[in-house]
Amino acid sequence: MKQNQLLIVVICVLSFTNFNGQTLSKNNSFDFSIGYNVGALKNLEIAPVSRYDYNSAIYKFKYQRITKKEKIFEVQLDYLQSEVENNVSSLLNFEYTKIGISVASLKKIYNKNRLLIHVGLESYSDLSLYDINPNNQFVFDQTLGLSSRFSYQINQKQHLFSKLTLPTLLLRITNSNANVYSLNRFQSILWKIGYSYSFSEQLSGQLSYDFNYDRLQISNAFRELQYQVNLGINYKF
């Protein structure tokens, strides 16, 4: 049911942009992808078990605009929902929902020999919901960091791309407290590498691999690791 609703949204967006495409330059694009996520979680503030594992589908929506000076502005929404499991007791398993919104602004610094490089800033808002009875828990993270994007044009139809983000500052709000952490306690990396093939001037397909890692060095230790393989479409308008 969720997949059908998501497909309806994508079809409506594509129909709308195609109707208006005659009056717009193709500096805008919309990405939709479905992936498979493998994750490991440790959050001693929420749950006593040192490690939980989860596998789930992950949905990604992204809007990107490229300006006349080739500056990139992009907004991305990620959504996953899964049951997290442990090897101690099934009674300690719970439902886990994670919603993330990232906003990036990247400036072109290099464009030569088919290689294009952008650097800039990226912020990431992340809401994690833990369905643990009797009181559900939540964690809200707001990060700010440095981001770089690399794109290599193989030929007219194919290109490789990679994006690396290193968050440097974290604001964390939970049911019980709120704190700000810098690099001495907070380490994180978000890395994507992918391949794109253009079917036409407007439509292309993408295959990507994502690696995400977060570590918080506090008394109630936090770790989260995610591997993702994503398959998606890109529509330019």
Plain-language structure description:
- This protein has 237 residues and is mainly beta.
- It contains 1 helix and 11 strands.
- A hairpin with a 3-residue loop joins strand 7 (158-174) and strand 8.
- It is globular and about 55 Å long.
- The two termini are 29 Å apart.
- Residues 4-24 have low confidence and may be disordered.
CATH superfamily: OPCA outer membrane adhesin/invasin
Largest sheet properties: 10 strands, antiparallel, barrel
Q: Compute the CA-based radius of gyration.
A: 19 Å
CATH architecture: Beta Barrel
Distance between the termini: 29 Å
* CATH topology tier name: Lipocalin
Averaging pLDDT over every residue, what do you get? 90
Overall tally of domains: 1
Reading side by side through the largest sheet, how are the strands ordered? Answer: 1-2-3-4-5-6-7-9-10-11
CATH class category = Mainly Beta
Strand-pairing-aware structural class? mainly beta
Give the beta-strand count: 11
Query: What amount of the residues lies in strands?
Result: over 45%
Q: Helix segment count? A: 1
Q: Spell the H/E element sequence.
A: HEEEEEEEEEEE
Low-pLDDT ranges: 4-24
Shape summary = globular
User: How much helicity do the residues have?
Assistant: under 10%
Protein name: Outer membrane protein beta-barrel domain-containing protein
Organism: Aquimarina litoralis
Condensed summary:
This protein has 237 residues and is mainly beta. The protein contains one helix and eleven strands; from the N terminus they run αβββββββββββ. The protein is 8% helix and 68% strand.
